[in-house]
């Protein structure tokens, strides 16, 4: 059965609210809350900082003459907020380290305890390799989902949405908001589609790489047989063929990545050109000033910056969700015999 959102949250609960059974659980809960405070503070600082750059630019281009003191003040606030955004981001990473360590240990311990409580019949029919891989990959996948999905991708999408709202509410330009929102949707759609398309090339590259090592290993292990039947040229031809096939798919993989980067940059720069042209027209009409022109440019560039690794993040999250689904199937296994809630403990042996 597919992994439901409730089951996903159940597995990831130690990353958001550690159990009382784990050491330093109270401190780790404080760290969890602090992590989200740092994330919100980082994104708020990042969203507000271009507004002060806009004020600094407007102060320098004011009609009576450049206002140096106001420009310096606003420029200082802009730099302070930019530094604060990155500082809070690093604080979030630092504070959350212990939480991830304890959460990883809690998931491993609870999964292992669950396996020990299953019946003998289940253990006799299980495949030990499959169980161990599902447990190891599932615990690693939980860490991946929290890191990439909840701590990176969702805050980045929230920041993009906040920029669209600023264009609509603060600058009162619905055209800018619509253009940026549409470009972000197109960027995400194209990135995911091309990433899924590139997946077959990456799989073929890995397969050809395995064939190279398999043929080299087989030939060198069976060296006596190759010499006995004078098959050196035949084995060399098979190995060379595998290398050429690997190079072919490797070049295709690199070329598809370049294609993805070109299309992404085309969308980003196209959006920048559109927003700047619209803003320049509003400045010409007197509805906006030069400071707004600078702020729009910064906002547009910053909105796409967290999405540079969207393809890699999407691939990692999808793979992690598959591994977590296998872990969830282990956790759904129930023992044949369960003690009643009112059962008394057996007396100790004499």
Automatic annotation (TrEMBL):
The keyword ATP-binding applies. It is found in: Membrane. One of its GO terms (cellular component) is membrane. PROSITE patterns: ABC_TM1F. SUPFAM superfamilies: ABC transporter transmembrane region. The keyword Ribonucleoprotein does not apply. Gene3D superfamilies: ABC transporter type 1, transmembrane domain. This is Atp-binding cassette superfamily.
């Amino acid at each position: 059965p597919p992994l439901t959102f409730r089951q996903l949250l159940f597995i990831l609960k130690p990353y958001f609210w550690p159990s009382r059974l784990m050491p330093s659980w109270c401190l780790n809960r404080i760290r969890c809350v602090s992590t989200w405070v740092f994330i919100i503070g980082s994104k708020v600082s990042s969203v507000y900082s271009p507004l002060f750059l806009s004020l600094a630019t407007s102060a320098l281009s004011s009609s009576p003459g450049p206002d140096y003191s106001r420009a310096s003040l606003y420029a200082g606030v802009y730099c302070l907020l930019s530094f604060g955004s990155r500082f809070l981001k690093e604080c979030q990473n630092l504070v959350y380290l212990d939480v991830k360590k304890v959460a990883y240990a809690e998931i491993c311990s609870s999964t292992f305890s669950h396996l020990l409580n299953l019946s003998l019949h289940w253990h006799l029919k299980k495949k030990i390799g499959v169980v161990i891989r599902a447990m190891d990959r599932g615990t690693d996948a939980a860490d991946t989902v929290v890191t990439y999905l909840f701590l990176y991708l969702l805050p980045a999408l929230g920041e993009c949405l906040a920029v669209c709202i600023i264009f609509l509410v603060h600058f009162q330009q619905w055209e800018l908001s619509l253009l940026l929102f549409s470009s972000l949707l197109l960027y995400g759609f194209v990135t995911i589609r091309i990433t899924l398309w590139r997946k077959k090339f990456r799989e073929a590259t890995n397969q050809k790489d395995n064939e190279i090592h398999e043929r080299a290993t087989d030939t060198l292990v069976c060296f006596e047989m190759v010499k006995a039947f004078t098959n050196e040229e035949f084995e060399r031809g098979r190995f060379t063929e595998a290398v050429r096939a690997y190079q072919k798919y490797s070049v295709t993989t690199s070329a598809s990545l370049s294609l993805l980067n070109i299309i992404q940059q085309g969308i980003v720069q196209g959006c920048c050109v559109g927003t700047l042209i619209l803003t320049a027209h509003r400045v010409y009409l007197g509805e906006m000033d030069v400071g707004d022109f600078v702020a729009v440019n910064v906002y547009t560039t910053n909105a796409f910056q967290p999405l540079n690794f969207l393809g890699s993040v999407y691939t990692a999250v999808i793979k992690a969700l598959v591994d977590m689904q296998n872990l969830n199937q282990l956790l759904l296994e129930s023992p044949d015999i369960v003690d009643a809630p009112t059962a008394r403990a057996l007396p100790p042996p004499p």
